[in-house]
Fold this sequence. Notes:
Blueprint: H1 3-13, E1 23-24, E2 28-30, E3 36-38, E4 66-70, H2 78-89, E5 100-104, E6 107-111, E7 115-117, E8 122-125, E9 131-135, E10 141-146, E11 153-154, E12 160-161, E13 166-167, E14 173-175, E15 187-192, H3 196-202, E16 223-233, E17 236-239, E18 247-248, E19 255-260, E20 265-277, E21 288-294, E22 297-308, E23 313-317, E24 322-327, E25 330-332, E26 346-348, E27 354-356, E28 359-361, E29 367-369, E30 374-385, E31 390-393, E32 398-408, E33 411-412, E34 428-434, E35 437-441, E36 444-445, E37 453-455, E38 458-461, E39 470-471, E40 474-475, E41 482-483, H4 487-494
Parallel strand pairs: 1-41, 4-5, 5-8, 6-9, 7-10, 8-20, 9-20, 10-21, 20-22, 21-23, 22-24, 22-25, 23-26, 24-27, 25-28, 26-29, 27-30, 28-30, 29-31, 30-32, 31-33, 32-34, 34-37, 35-38, 37-40
Antiparallel strand pairs: 2-3, 11-19, 12-19, 13-18, 14-17, 15-16, 15-19, 16-17, 36-39
Amino acid sequence: MNPIPFIVGLLLLHLPVVAQQTWQSQHVKYNANGVLVYTPDEKGNRIPDFSEVGYKGGQKLPFVPVVKTLYPAKGDDGKKIQQAIDELAKRKHNKEGFRGAIVLSKGNYDVSQSIKISASGIVLRGEGNETKLVATGKGKRTLITISGMGEIEEVAGTRRKITDDYVPVGAQSFSVSSTKGLKAGDRIVVYRPGTAQWISDLKMDQIDAKSNTKQWQPAEYDLHFERKIRRIEGNRIFIDYPVVMAMETKYGGGAIYQYHFNGRIENVGIENLLCESAYANNEDEDHGWNAVSFGKVENGWVKKVTAKYFGYSCVNLGDDSRNITVDSCRSLEPKSKITGGRRYSFNNDGQFNLVMNCFASEGRHDYVTGQKVRGPNVFYNCRAEKAKSDIGPHHRWSVGTLYDNIVTDGELNVQDRGNWGSGHGWSGITQVLWNCVAARAAIQDPWVSGRNYVIGFKSERYEGRLKGRRQTVWEETGNEGLEPASLYKAQVASGKQTL
């Protein structure tokens, strides 16, 4: 017996144990009772609570019973799948709001067009990577589209002014001119107008112009945040999700109004599928573009879906999608030119959406939001490899996103993008980067209307595309031991937050 390994083992046992040094953010930390406590700035702004994003405010995804099983055949299987979906849409839903699940048994399913779900309560489920849907032939399209109809409609005579001079980021209450006719449970829009003064102070009417540059216009930057009233005290209303952009009297203040969204569907899910697109070559752009897209939907999910060879995304969440959970999905080997408007692996333009435990390779903007995205939204515990461009808010003022434990070998940026595109300008506000890792990052704060937060970020830091912009303060750059390790998980566990 060789005594050396045994002796080394004994020595290691007797070495002093060095505990990892932990630290907490100055913005949010645990108190003695293990509850998260937030430190507001001089105006009352603080990091928002992101805990209720995702399906039904962060509820566990349900298992929906099977009502029909399909099997692959020769030829175009898309028609058969669509027929089964349309037949299921005619059935009544149960008390939980579901009509049932259609299971695609293992095998290959050729789909020459798009599969569309336009009714509530339907789940399309495969048997993992053994169920493969192939977007065959040519045509830039989405393989699986989930969407209802309609749009937000303001209820006439319900608009009333917010009377507070300043409503800070993170607030979940404010005063209005009257609460007559309102009650707990009412759906409202919190409205923040775009004004010429705001755009001027933001310098978005002064973008360095090229031939296609469009300066920002006030009416195009009205923001309509969906919320629900939780309770009313006098003329003060309390809402379910926090304010993610401060409302200021000097920039037009704010208002609320009741609304309807007739035609939006709910309780829909896509599960356990391998989706592939046929393609002619690595730069082919006349083929499947999105694997799964959500439009006018609330309370839905995509779980354990792998997308290969699509030109744009694995999952694309539109601006009328809300409370969608995207969990454990993968975007692999996209096929397209490597330039603008392509390879947005997990794109979110909606509200209260959660993308978690996902993976992307060879994308350009892997975890990304678009213009005027109204949070809160969360990307949690996601990775990107062989990145061709950056992660982050892409353009024109995305509001209220948490990037929590995002790891990329590319860049993660929040900055003034200037005249890129047709005038991207300031990409985002109230963007929270928590315990992330990137090769390089530029994080800037806009001239007015708030700031961004960087806590425990491990990355090379650079100034950004445009010089002279306000640089966000980085807290404890690169240091290990941040507590909590995940802000999102800590907020979920902590429940009701304490100021």
